[in-house]
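Continuing the batch. This is chain 6 of the set; chains 1 through 5 are on the previous pages. Same settings as before, nothing changed between runs. Recording input and output for traceability.
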Amino acid sequence: MHNQYLVDFCFFGLTNVNKKTLAQQLEGKSILITGASSGIGAQLAYELADFHCHLILVARRGEKLAEVKREVEKKNARVDIFQADLRNEPEMNDLLSFLHSLPNGLDIIVSNAGLSIKRSIYDSLDRFHDVSRTMAINHYAPVQLLLSTIPLLQKNRGQFINVSSINTLLAPVPYFAAYQASKSAFDIWFRSVSPELNAKGIVTTSIYFPLVKTPMIEPTVAYRNKPALSKRGAAQIICKGMYKNKKKMKPWWLLFGQMASIFLFSFWDFTKKR
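Output for chain 6:
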């Protein structure tokens, strides 16, 4: 535990949460969390369980969602679960209808659902679906979700939190073309519309995570034993984002990483054979 705390500190700095401030911020509010059946989304639900708020948990796996709901409801939060694959148009439309039917509206959206793929382009020649499915969940789904809920968030002066990746701020790398392109697409779109949303009272927050220990990284063998931010550390950073209202939250060392990635990419581009 102590070693993981040190890793979390090195990856993102202090992740401790001011629970009193968070409790005041969330009192009576409705919070939507996508990708809530495991990983960061489920852990975030557990972190918010102590507070008097209404959690709306969305994911594809209904049984896993039900497990999270049972654990959370042992404490103070009220929970609704909604099984939906946000890439599926009818299921997305059902979710949006449900959100618009909430009597007290919606206060916070945590857009956490996502898909990562690591694959060589030479293993992808007959896998165009890798591109379409990553774009569907990492870009199109959060765009559609935000477009529909802007009136709800504006009415309650709410917040949209984009759970992003440091990859969107670094130079592109091999094997992650589909993932990096799809995450970057929404990151740019979200930052483009944020000034308009902010002017109408909607808080926009982008959180740029490094590698996080979640089930999503399990298929990549090289990541299994690498140091990574814990899912609890990631969830606590999101909690802090709910009361700090920063536009961006990112690791303290990311500026140096950006400089190094640009230099290495430029060096490779300069030295490659033509």
